[in-house]
Amino acid sequence: AQKITQTQPGMFVQEKEAVTLDCTYDTSDQSYGLFWYKQPSSGEMIFLIYQGSYDEQNATEGRYSLNFQKARKSANLVISASQLGDSAMYFCAMREPPNAGGTSYGKLTFGQGTILTVHP
Amino acid sequence: NAGVTQTPKFQVLKTGQSMTLQCAQDMNHEYMSWYRQDPGMGLRLIHYSVGAGITDQGEVPNGYNVSRSTTEDFPLRLLSAAPSQTSVYFCASSYSGGQGGNTIYFGEGSWLTVV
Predict the structure, then answer these.
(1) What is the dihedral sign for C-alpha A80, A83, A85, A89?
(2) What is the model's pLDDT at position A2?
């Protein structure tokens, strides 16, 4: 069974500074995918970044980067130059591995989330 | 292209009532799923479907039914609502295939209160 752990219930950061949100995972599978989502107070789930288990380079999307350490089973999200609009709940999630036929679906296991507050 | 559409957005039910949360996608995705989100927790999988006519249970299926008669629609039925089903419900969809599970589309959520 897959498990995602986010140990930081809440984080605070000063505007324009960088912040790292922690995520560790547990799986016995070799092929998996890791996601980060942002959930603002309005409630929608916003996709931020994806990392495949076989990707050799850390994923980056604008101000977001994923610090992927496979041996440690960690997939931390780094937000550079924080903005007030970054204040939100952030979820780490893992996708179920492909089935025996190699088909991959979007079946996700989520962590409990981290509330990020950006101070001006 | 509307993406994933959920209705209703807000609903208040009395204990014992039944209702259906609707989910539709216009991207011809094979995979659709329902999650619930309770306060202070991440999303948990209720039911999912890998294609029309095929459904399966997730982590928290009790009290919910689903069916998938078309590729586009995946309704979630609450048979006899209980206060424990007060939650925010999200529908999601994605393609299958080698890279298909890498892009997952979420609806905007449905806020359900059972009194």
Answers:
(1) positive
(2) 84
